[in-house]
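Sanity check. The docking grid for pyridoxal-5'-phosphate depends on where the pocket ends up, so I'm generating a full predicted complex first rather than guessing from homology. Inputs follow.
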Amino acid sequence: MGFATDAIHAGQEPDPATGAITVPVYQTSTYVQESLGRHKGFEYARTQNPTRLALEKNIAVLEKGFAGFAFSSGMASITTVMMLLKSGDHCIVTENVYGGTYRVFTRVFANLGLEFTFADTSGLENIRKAMKPNTRMVFIETPTNPLLSMTDLRLTANFCNDMNLLLVVDNTFMSPYFQKPLSLGADIVLHSSTKYLNGHSDGVGGVVVVANQDMAQKMAFLQNSAGAILAPLEAWLVLRGIKTLALRMEKHSDNAMKIAEYLVRVKKVKRVFYPGLPDYPQHDLARKQCSGFGGMISIDLGTPDKAREMVESVRIFALAESLGGVESLIGHPATMTHGSIPKESRQRMGLTDSIVRLSVGIEDVEDLIGDLSYALDRI
Ligand SMILES: *Cc1c(COP(=O)(O)O)cnc(C)c1O
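Predicted complex below; grid placement will be based on this.
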């Protein structure tokens, strides 16, 4: 089946009890057993819930994986995946990773005996250089937030396969509509479903999809043991969001392309980061690895003051953290999403205080360009 068909139908048979076409919200904590040990496959709602299961089946199909798991947040999915490691293990991480991921790795898991090396994973030689005898996992975010730097997933997957390392990919920015890491050889793909999968800025959640049965058994065990599961109503909202994922991603990407093309012509904008621009350094990799360029753009305005004036002058773009919803958002990564990363680390990877990040929504693009033009005139 095609992506849009799967998005609407996978894992979502009519409700067996009533025929309801929409998967009901099974707001229950337990299930009555017919007799001792005889039940319908559901015993206790931390372990299994039919609404959550529908989402888990759906996302597994969309990511072309073996099984899916839904968690209470993107961070809960990342935390649970890291529990595959044990004290003393080493993990190589994309240096320009999401701020919350950096925080939990350096300030929580490092205390529990996991070791991390942050590297520019866009060059395989940097991953090679970061290798240690105890390296067990490579954790990639591509494209990164907010600099949109990309890692070649096929190349990295081949390397990880040769070295017997687990390859985990945070696919939040592209969504499975534009990028399918498991098809390129990754072992685990995860998302903050708070972003494009939900798409309507009305819920927090996360999903993990694994490539094979062995990994599925381990994740099911960890999900049930650690218990950071997605609640049924939240799962229902993500299922509802995913039904329009294909349509939304097309529009996010079309709007972002037009806005990027507008921004490169504005003198006050020193630099535009968008993988869809032909002169973007990794444009060829973006074309090879993704079927679209996504809805995220970053711009460098030259000074922190101009960045502040810009985010405070827009009227349609809302000044807010998060991304991937139908409405356009604007943010200042250095003080907002990436505030938890030390200034020296931010400078080293080029995340300066003059960078503004746009999450381009699905409004009329003329209105969005008009809004940006209004704000840019004022700085
Ligand atoms: C938002 C985000 C996360 C964290 O997800 P939450 O749902 O906020 O916990 C992880 N990775 C990326 C790339 C994100 O954008």
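Relevant for the grid: The first helix runs from residue 3 to 9.
Also worth noting: The longest strand covers residues 135-141.
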